[in-house]
Amino acid sequence: MTILITGASSGIGGACARRFAREGWRLILTGRRADRLEELAEELALEHQTESLVLVFDVRDRQETAQALETLPQEWMDIDVLVNNAGLALGLQPVQDGEVDDWETMIDTNIKGLLYVTRALSPGMVARGCGHIINIGSVAGREVYPNGAVYSATKHAVDALTKGMRMDLLRHGIKVTQIAPGAAETEFSAVRFKWDMEMAAGVYKGYEPLKGEDIAEVCHYVTTLPPHVNINDLLIMPLAQAGALVWHKR
Ligand code: NDP
Ligand code: 8X3
């Protein structure tokens, strides 16, 4: 079995790679940071004898993405599972003060990037009449919170795209699932706060956040169900979180 994970160089994507490697899957690891991806591939080869293919591209670049995914070596073309995970938040500001460049990056990565990857890989699944696409959404795709309008809009788009993809791919026997996490301690907040590590650490104070591994476990679970069962949508939070703005912190 072969899985392609976007954004495997960190966080949830890296944890997914480790989880599926444990089960003996072949991995296509993608992201922009080649060194991280190569290190991960080496680690997994040593620990699990995993065969990995590393592809370095920026999902915002339509040409680069199509080139990387449409010219896969023959033996890597049959992808059973695609995890559309690459994504980010940048900034936490009211719209009237928002950084337009940050908005563009979030929209280009979280919406357009997911679409470019899906457009490149779904025809192969359609031709084979099987496959599973897992989109990583967010609690921010269900709720909006102050200062997070644009990130939230991108994750609402992932929610809509997942529903639409499920409808379009229905008659081709392709599973489509959204997994929507609440707060998970990854590089997400470091990226959001532009590597202000104190700000980032503050997000995870006073409660036990999810780990990438928790989400990876669920990603793996949804691929283990019988062929006639599709999990459409899962919202997963730390025990201490009941909504985007509802917390029980110590
Ligand atoms: P990380 O920052 O740890 O990982 C993000 C991954 O996305 C990295 O591997 C990064 O790789 C990749 N990525 C970002 N931009 C691009 C790009 N332009 N092209 C290719 N790859 C890119 O964060 P998480 O693991 O937490 O995030 C994974 C997903 O989970 C995201 O979609 C995020 O929105 C979502 N999510 C996260 C939550 C959280 O609390 N952590 C909660 C809900 C959802 P590289 O930099 O090497 O390109
Ligand atoms: C990440 C979770 O609440 O920071 O999608 O938007 S949140």
Concise synopsis of the structure shown:
By secondary structure, this protein is α/β, with parallel strands linked by helices. About 45% of the residues lie in helices and about 20% in strands. The protein has a single domain (about 1-245), classed as NAD(P)-binding Rossmann-like Domain (Rossmann fold), CATH 3.40.50.720.
Within CATH, the superfamily carries the name: NAD(P)-binding Rossmann-like Domain
List the strand order in the largest sheet.
Answer: 3-2-1-4-5-6-9
Helical coverage, percent range: 40-55%
Q: Tally of extended strands?
A: 11
Give the tally of structural domains: 1
The mean pLDDT is: 98
| Highest-level CATH class | Alpha Beta
What is the rounded Rg? 17 Å
Kindly describe this structure.
The structure is a single chain. This protein is of the alpha/beta class. It has a single domain (2-244), classed as Rossmann fold (3-Layer(aba) Sandwich). It is built from eight helices and eleven strands. The strands form three sheets. It has a seven-stranded parallel sheet with strand order 3-2-1-4-5-6-9, sandwiched between helices. Helix 2 (34-48) links the parallel strand 2 and strand 3. The N and C termini lie far apart (43 Å). The mean pLDDT is 98. Bound molecules: NADPH dihydro-nicotinamide-adenine-dinucleotide phosphate (NDP) and 2-hydroxyethylsulfonic acid (8X3).
